[in-house]
Amino acid sequence: MIHPIKEYDYYINTTAQSFSDETKLSPIPTNAIINKVITGWGATWAEIKCKRHSIILLPHKSQIASKHIKHYTEDYTQDVTETIKIEKLKKYINARGSRYLKFLSTPEGLGKVIAALKECGIHPYQETFLLCDESHKITTDVKYRVNISSFADDFFLFTNKAMISATPFRPSHPKFDEQGFKMIKVNHARDIRKDITLLCVNNLGTAFKDYIGHYDGEMLFVFFNSLNGIETLISKNELKGKAHIYCSEDGVKDFSLKEGFKAFAKIDSTKLAKVNFLTSSFYNGLDIDGFAEMPDVLILTDLQYAEWSLVDPNTDVYQILGRFRQPFGSPEMRDRYRTATHIINNKNNAAVKLENNALSDIGYSYMGYKAIRDLQNTVINESAINLYEEAKQRLRPYSNLINTKGELDRFKLDNYLYECRLKQCYGHPIALPLAYEFSQLFNVLEEHKVYLPEDFVSMSKKMNRYSKENIMLCCKIILENRFQADEKLRLATMNEIETRFPLVVRAEKHLGMARIQELGYRKSAIEKALLAYDITSALNHHGLIDAIVRLFKVGASYSVADIKTRIQKVYDEFKIKKTAKATDIKTYFHVFPFTGHVALKKKEIKQLEEGSLTDAEVLVDNNGIKKKSVRMYKIMERKLNTMSLNSTREKPFVPPVD
């Protein structure tokens, strides 16, 4: 369960309407982690206006763009994202005159800023103030942004630095204590609680249909961190061509392949739709204002098919509602929205892990990792070195928690433990209401709705980027691109395809177009063929792991008989002379054994009618379906990593070279 930070080094009681009005915080003190408590209080604005050179780290490009547009002319700001090169930063620095430098950068871009300052004769660590804004995002995003925590080495070299958030975490990195960082909380005289309705349902698709069917407001903002889920809700509620989607640039490219979807990477408040869907890129630090309509806010969590849509009341929900600001200078202090609703679909027996168990898993996997590393250091044969390296990468969770130097990344460790706590908030129907209550940030109205099975609206279960149609289209583009006379354009097209469809590009390279066609342009068949290629080419020394892990879904339950059948099929394909046992699954997953019920097969129904199967072994559920009791395993968590065939997410970001 997630609890807010209880103890701080200092408390600041204030009646100030803005950050800059509080004299104890203006200018922002050094070596401090500040909990400003309320969103939109103007901390970023205050640092931009502060009379000193500043580097302000913001988690998302959308936030950087929003603040850069507002401040560039008056405050001489410079945005720093992956497309901005060092030469441009040097021109910005040299053209400053008497003005203060104000860099608005992602954490990953800090290295470029430091390099540019040094080349222009400015000592970055002594002459600039470094502010990590929305600092909680370092912890929450580090799992899928492998370089976001790379700023830490440089961060601690700055003489003047601070972290700030309305929803901060207490980081475990030892250098915070070594450098005497202080935790500061702002206690506001005004009421900080936000009103929200928590609606617990048994089918998310039906609940959204019900909500949208009765919606009588002027403008709706739907926060849902699932592109597939958004696509499903738009398609099944006649919102094609009407709703807008705001997501990452990758997501915009995905939706450009689909007809009837309007997706954008930036918000233009003058061109909003009546219904607007937003993914997690827009949860934090972004002002959604500049329109006359009074909006309603809807937050969706899908536990069945999109576990990444889980939101934390202490951070995500509070940040989302803080996006809706009153006009600048308005005497009204409350956030500008009419109603806020969080809809969550219930899920029985969700896979959760207690923190002590998580720490134990880290310890055991570290021991295995260290043993393999020590053995790796004793060999000189390249094939043996590669085998040991692959074995190290597969050991979960420790191998997921190290940085590029092979050392434990404290932010990744914090993220792993945080995610365990977050999942606990959704592990039992009573847990999430308690999390809202413990946060002390909301006035919550809890409601429950139960829909009939015949009214259920099914949600998308899998990513559609690699649909058969998209793979065929991708292959067509690759073939046509071979005849492109413009070499620069040809290379740019291939780079774009490889970014969007790495699995297809790799398959075309190693299997060939004819083989892809033979496989029916099916993603699963292509993955299987590439796995076989990797094994025969000695690129994958543990192919059995990948083959078995792909057969089972974390959080799902399987009968003992089903598990044995699935594993035996893989053994046969790999020509392993071994009879599968259900307990073999424990090599690859943490599992929870229990007695469950599965529907009778036609053969068993016939046996029941003939009397060879007794009534005592059969039960009938509420829908009249006949079931039998069987031993089952619930898949709790993977013990071993798979080697990714179709994702670029795990690859580190390489800054452009000037």
List the topology elements.
Layout: E1 10-14, E2 32-35, H1 43-49, E3 54-57, H2 61-75, E4 77-80, H3 86-94, E5 102-105, H4 110-119, H5 124-127, E6 129-133, H6 136-141, H7 152-155, E7 161-165, H8 174-178, E8 182-188, E9 194-201, H9 204-213, E10 219-223, H10 227-236, E11 244-246, H11 249-256, E12 262-264, E13 275-278, E14 295-301, H12 313-321, E15 340-345, H13 355-376, H14 382-394, H15 410-424, H16 431-439, E16 442-449, H17 468-481, H18 487-500, H19 502-510, H20 513-518, H21 523-536, H22 543-549, E17 557-559, H23 560-573, E18 589-599, H24 602-610, E19 618-620, E20 626-638
Parallel strand pairs: 1-8, 2-7, 2-8, 3-5, 3-6, 4-5, 6-7, 9-15, 9-16, 10-13, 10-14, 11-12, 11-13, 14-15
Antiparallel strand pairs: 17-20, 18-20, 19-20
Helix pairs in contact: 3-4, 13-14, 18-19, 19-21
Task: Briefly characterize the structure.
By secondary structure, the chain is α/β, with parallel strands linked by helices. Helix content is 37%, strand content 17%.
